[in-house]
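Cross-posted from the bioinformatics board.
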Amino acid sequence: GAVVSQHPSWVICKSGTSVKIECRSLDFQATTMFWYRQFPKQSLMLMATSNEGSKATYEQGVEKDKFLINHASLTLSTLTVTSAHPEDSSFYICSATDSPMNTEAFFGQGTRLTVV
Amino acid sequence: GENVEQHPSTLSVQEGDSAVIKCTYSDSASNYFPWYKQELGKRPQLIIDIRSNVGEKKDQRIAVTLNKTAKHFSLHITETQPEDSAVYFCAANPYNNNDMRFGAGTRLTVKP
């Protein structure tokens, strides 16, 4: 099956700094990538949807200036958490599809962010 | 937008028994319904999916049923094994869209 690689798998940063998370589709072209946030023992909450070459579409309540998403190529999307605070600590996970129609989504391995 | 509800939130069964997890969705335009298994700290893994033109799909010990009229779909796991223990999520995709919405998850524990 298709492979999505997410990096880093975990990161610890100081409050006020920014952190970039990468999501790469290794063997297919990802027309659409999704970014989710998952708190402990909770479901995956969609943060934003990004299509290559266009601005991301953010879900209601997600600050686009805080969570910067760049989908510069068909194989790479990045999520930058700017001015991170302890409440941003969470498991961030991306997924990618190779079709704009509803098809199987392939997930990255996730990034555990801890802000201290 | 789509709203997916999932029950139960926790489920404990004895090894060899069956487990059933149920989900309902709100958007009648949804036509793709995947089920994911997630182990602690790992990525969700697709275990089975169903499209709205099909009422049931089976893959070995796992089956999914879909009732479009009632807008609900269920995951059935037979002959459960301890390695089936994980969190299971249902999801629904609106037609012509990959904007997938997840249920709240069910923590399944299979006791040996």
